[in-house]
């Protein structure tokens, strides 16, 4: 029996100032700057140029569909720096869902972090304002609308200053620095497929 060729999946730590595609956009860099990547892989979904963190690239169209289509509801975790200290009421609004462009977001997980997370410094630092404190949140979404995290935090009165996607399912940024990538092993890829196939 002839086996189909092994598909490829890559984890990439997308830095700030990079678009999630292989062609540049204005002053932003593209993924091509950080290759070479395995032939035939393309980004799964997107992180905006001003966002950072975990980006999948793959040549498996079924994996791409299952990771991005909202009907599957796979969890994506974001570490978010916001203006001011959110109250429990603001966090509860995030958990229950907020209305964006006339449509309520799905329920999310949201919690206030006790300390600043251990993240690489951003090449362009967040603008410091002496009289405006900041806080760090962890937000878990099961959908991926355009600039959703930023719109959600703004809707509850806490604009996002820095946004880093740190986890998708069990897959994290561990072992990667901004601009680095690694190819999933066959075992990891099969584990990913099993997770995506689970009800």
Defining traits:
Alpha-Beta Plaits, 19% helix, alpha+beta, 4 helices, nine-stranded mixed beta sheet, 199 residues
Give a written overview of the molecule.
The structure is a single chain. The chain is α+β, with helices and mostly antiparallel strands. It folds into two domains: 9-69 and 169-197, Alpha-Beta Plaits (2-Layer Sandwich), CATH 3.30.70.580; 76-168, Alpha-Beta Plaits. Helix content is 19%, strand content 27%. It is built from four helices and eleven strands, in the order E-E-E-H-E-H-E-E-E-E-H-E-E-E-H. The chain has helices at 61-68, 88-96, 148-155, 186-197, and strands at 9-14, 42-43, 52-58, 76-83, 99-100, 103-104, 109-112, 134-141, 160-168, 171-172, 181-183. Strands 1, 2, 3, 4, 7, 8, 9, 10 and 11 form a nine-stranded mixed β-sheet that branches. It has a two-stranded antiparallel ribbon with strand order 5-6. The chain is globular.
Would you kindly provide a brief summary of this structure?
With 199 residues, the chain is of the alpha+beta class. It contains 4 helices and 11 strands; from the N terminus they run βββαβαββββαβββα.
List the helices and strands and how they pair.
Elements lengths: L8 E6 L27 E2 L8 E7 L2 H8 L7 E8 L4 H9 L2 E2 L2 E2 L4 E4 L21 E8 L6 H8 L4 E9 L2 E2 L8 E3 L2 H12 L2
Parallel strand pairs: 3-9
Antiparallel strand pairs: 1-3, 1-11, 2-3, 4-8, 4-9, 5-6, 7-8, 9-10
